[in-house]
Amino acid sequence: MSLEKSLKGDDTIILRPLALTDAPNIVEAINESLIELRRFMSWAHFPQTVESQLARIVTAKYDYWSGKEYVLGIFGNTTNRLLGSTGLHRRTLNTHGLEIGYLMRSSMAGEGRATAVTRSLIVYGFEYLGLKRVQCGYNSSNEASSRVNDKCGFKIEGIFRNFESLHNRGDDS
Question: For residues 44 and 30, what is the distance between their CA atoms, to the nearest angstrom?
Fold first, then answer.
């Protein structure tokens, strides 16, 4: 699958399954974005290594090709730089639905890419995968994700409490 969405002139986003060669770039993007990621992602409180990302990519590739989940890298067309990651995940109560998740490298945030990616995955989910439901949850304190949800037409149907425990060490590490 290769989805493209033109944002600013020649600035095109490429979505594609992750490759093993992407592991060092994933670690670099995570390390750049740790301050923001630790606020919302429990896994960001644990060391991210090339080895751990290689294992994650192997699982993601298996899940992708078996139709379980679809984890994708977000890349710049002209630079082939990893801008973030996204995916359609089995986190819904509906067995014919998937949840969109995404994260953007901190230096790439706030420029409309997460919205463009989310819109592309909505189309992909309904039109190509035949889903009956696509949802996009977010932490209520994540204002940027709230804006993406609003721009993509998602409506709040409820609030999950204690859905995901966040690791909180009381510091930025």
Answer: 8
pTM of the model: 0.80
Q: Are 102 and 135 in contact (CB under 8 A)?
A: no
Query: What pLDDT, on the 0 to 100 scale, is given for residue 169?
Result: 45
Distance separating the N- and C-terminal Cα atoms of the chain = 36
Residues in the chain: 173
Which CATH number do you get for residue 34? 3.40.630.30
Q: Given this model, what pLDDT does residue 172 score? A: 44
With a cut of 70, which residues of the chain have pLDDT below it? Answer: 1-11, 161-173
Does a structural domain hold residue 156?
no
The torsion region of residue 159 among left (phi > 0), alpha (psi -120 to 50) and beta comes to beta
Reported as type and span, the H/E element at residue 88 is strand 82-89
Please tell me the predicted confidence (pLDDT) of residue 24.
93
Q: In terms of Cα–Cα distance, which of 63, 44, 64 is closest to 52? A: 44
Report how far apart, in Å, the C-alpha atoms of 99 and of each of 32, 139, 155, 159 are: 25, 14, 14, 15
How far apart, in whole angstroms, are the C-alpha atoms of residue 122 and residue 118? 6
Structural domains in the chain (count): 1
